[in-house]
Specification:
The protein is α/β, with parallel strands linked by helices and about 375 residues long. It is built from 13 helices and 8 strands. The chain folds into 2 domains: about 30-175, no CATH class; about 195-370, 3-Layer(aba) Sandwich (Rossmann fold), CATH 3.40.50. It is about 40% helix and about 10% strand. The strands form 2 sheets. The protein has a 5-stranded parallel sheet, sandwiched between helices. A 3-stranded parallel sheet has the order 2-1-3. β4 (about 210), α9 and β5 form a beta-alpha-beta unit. α3 crosses α7 (about 165-175), α7 (about 165-175) packs across α12 (about 335-345) and α8 crosses α11 (about 310-325). The longest helix is centred in the N-terminal third of the chain and has 18 residues, at about 65-85. It is globular and about 60 Å long. The N and C termini lie far apart (about 45 Å).
Length: about 375
């Protein structure tokens, strides 16, 4: 009908541009991390040279880490590639456990390129031509010397963000460019959620994005409850002058008990995506009552046990993209997924309303390796 068409066009007009395939940043440098446009252009040129001949490959290590960890650990190997004129590429099995299932089987790829644009236009050609492979074995971030000199110690941004944190955000941003298939899938999902009004598009002004990471993260940090996250949001809302009529939360979490608690919260309007249904009508196991495993990995160590991993990843990406529409951000930055949200709201979004609000790090969980010169985890 004409009404349906009008509603669809209105939704499409309000979709953020970073949903588009092959998205590249432009404009508004004052509301992004310093040098972001320059760095993104430099990475792109380094990874996509006019001719591929003569370039060695730096192949990212094979591992079973999830997507956010893969994007962050790639900062070292991509930095090494840039510094020496090589080409960074994913290992064919980079994070395979997270990329198993129908969606990635159909793509014929079981690494991050299942969802994203391949990191280079050269990797397949270079591999076919027998290009040299340079191993990356350094367990640290390699930051191109050019950027180290452009952001020396004592510069304003070094007081609030370490160079490692900044570089990791830049690499994650470059790699976080959807291929056409994933772009189309996530746009359709956002249109459907907007049509339901849960959540609306865009999120209301002053919405708090709260990511509560539980599951297997107990091995790495002290997990904080929903109440602790909400308390941090309450304190920040008062300090930042958010009116009581604008107390909105967009929640992402791997814990179904957090969802139950959040939806029972008074004084806030809480939005949370329901776990979608599978083809047989059963809910996708994107949240489990087992608080010790990652839902994508927890069924078993067999291939069959990870059959839903890529669908769970799509659900997580759907949630992350909506989170980037928020104004305020709350979570534990001991979680790499939480850090990925922080990375992208500083780079992809390019809006002052989210860029200028410090991240609210519940329980000061950011690893001390990333503490900047003027570290204060409870900025409001």
């Amino acid at each position: 009908s004409d009404t349906t068409l009008t509603q669809t066009l209105a939704v499409e007009d309000t979709l953020p541009p970073w949903y588009q395939p092959y998205f590249r940043l432009s404009g508004t440098p004052q509301t992004r991390l310093p040098l972001t446009e320059e760095v993104q252009a430099d990475i792109w040129r380094s990874q996509n040279p006019p001719a591929c001949a003569g370039h060695a490959l730096v192949v990212h290590r094979r591992s079973n880490f999830g997507l956010s960890a893969q994007l962050h650990w790639a900062a070292g190997s991509l930095g090494m590639a840039m510094e020496h004129g090589h080409i960074f590429t994913w290992h064919a099995a980079s994070g395979t456990k997270a990329f198993m299932g129908r969606y990635c089987d159909e793509a014929g790829v079981h690494n991050p390129s299942c969802f994203f644009v391949p990191p280079s236009n050269c990797s397949d050609q270079a591999a076919a031509a027998g290009a040299a492979v340079v191993p990356y074995a350094v367990h640290n971030y390699t930051i191109p010397s050019k950027f180290e000199s452009e952001m020396p110690p004592g510069s304003p941004w070094r007081k609030v963000m370490t160079l490692n944190y900044w570089w990791r955000a830049q690499v994650a941003t470059y790699l976080f460019r959807f291929n056409k298939r994933t772009s189309r899938e996530l746009i359709q999902r956002r249109q459907r959620s907007a049509a339901r009004g849960a959540p609306p598009l865009p999120l209301p002004p002053n919405t708090f994005s709260i990511h509560v990471r539980h599951g297997d993260k107990w091995k790495e940090m002290n997990l904080q409850s929903w109440d602790a996250h909400l308390h941090a949001a309450d304190v920040a809302a008062r300090a930042r002058g958010v009116p009581a009529s604008q107390r909105f939360v967009y929640l992402t979490t791997d814990d179904p008990r957090v969802v139950e608690s959040a939806l029972a919260t008074h004084g806030w309007t809480v939005y949370v995506l329901p776990c979608p249904l599978q083809a047989d009508g059963s809910p996708l196991p994107c949240r489990t009552t087992d608080n010790t495993t990652n839902p994508a990995f927890g069924i078993s160590d067999s291939e069959q046990g990870h059959a839903d991993a890529d669908e769970i990843m799509l659900f997580a990406l759907e949630g992350l993209m909506i989170a980037l529409e928020a104004t305020h951000f709350v979570g534990q930055r001991g979680s790499s997924w939480t850090v990925l949200i922080d990375d992208l709201r500083h780079t992809l979004v390019g809006s002052a309303f989210s860029f200028d609000t410090p991240y609210i790090d519940v329980d000061c969980s950011l690893h001390e390796w990333y503490w900047p010169e003027d570290y204060a985890c409870d900025d409001l």
